[in-house]
Write a structure and sequence with these properties.
CATH class of the largest domain: Alpha Beta
Number of strands: 18
Mean pLDDT: 94
CATH topology of the largest domain: Ribosomal Protein S5, domain 2
Length: 423
Amino acid sequence: MTEENSKKKAKLAPIYMETSSAPTNIACIKYWGKADAHYNTPINDSVSVTLDQADLKAVTTVASSTAFESDRLWLNGIEEEGAATSKRFRACIDGVKALATDKLDDKGTVVVKKEDWQNMHIHASSFNTFPTAAGLASSAAGYAALVAALSLLMGAKEEYPGQLTTIARQGSGSACRSLNGGFVAWRRGSVDQEWKNSLAEQVADEKHWPEIRAVIMVVSDAKKDTSSTAGMSTSVATSLLLKYRADTVVAQRMEEIERAFLAKDFEAFGRLTMADSNQFHATCLDTYPPIFYMNDVSHSIIRIIHAYNKWAGQIRAAYTFDAGPNAVLFTLNQYAVEVGALMLHYYPCLGEHYVNNPEFEAEIKAFEIDAGLLAATDKTGQDPQPGQVKMMYYTRSGPGPKKLTDTILNLDPETGLNTYKVA
């Protein structure tokens, strides 16, 4: 069917639509490897900080109508071929449909019976405000926004707490954590419960430790050479270190980092975050053939952060790297400008605007770095080189998904077709 015929047919039946935004999250204790590929469950627990949607988010509009002939998905303005049969997309749609309720209009009249959702196709259009597939958990934000929007559309009601997170993790594992704000744990779950207990739980909301900040260094916004899914599969099959990590290391680290976060102990939080990032990438190197997500710029950032902390006599900044070369530097509000200025010194910008936050950019450009600090970090051998870092994001912890108004739409309310275009 042509797009013109689709438009004509869509006008013959009502179109119901909702839009939701959802945050990305950055894992402090990583998950790497699937226990069950069908249910998309992990071999170990993980925990993450949800980032503020004011700075990084996915925005997803979903629509449903009896006029639609198939399920369709647009990502960043481009239609995904084969979306109707995509396992991950289908799991989210079918999972939410199973929890759907009657849809009422403003007068309380039922306009869609809960059982009728099963016979209605879904159109979805989603975009990210940050680089896709570059190791910044874009799929987590995207699938969390999809599940959140579908839940709004169909009035989904959970049968047990956290059920929607079990649906989101079937789209993208870490998406389950993006359905909550603050500090969020993904519990591994167990096969004896058919993985229904593989879900995300909020350890602390975004108001618990408001001083937490994140400085994100986008070293590359290119698509990864090795996808996370492929990398996990190879690591599970070949890395002895990965098995040891999952069986022996992670449980204790989870207890320690949750305790540190609740106590607002940045020294312990930072040490555990960096150690776990290092071990995650060590398992990638222990994979055969080895997987290289970090690059020379990533390694230089690590050296500078350790030199900075040594100079300060305490952990003021903690790096973590997901499956990509981009660094997320956690710090506290009182040190954020110093950390940002140090990064700007060694990784100066090429263009006029380097940071997502103009106020923070002005502050770090004006900040005078201590001469002793520069002497300490110069010993790492890193010379200031413009262009090694493409962009810097400055953000904090934030809430989970938000319902957006009817004026914010990625789909045409009259046709259900994509309207979003990349700027």
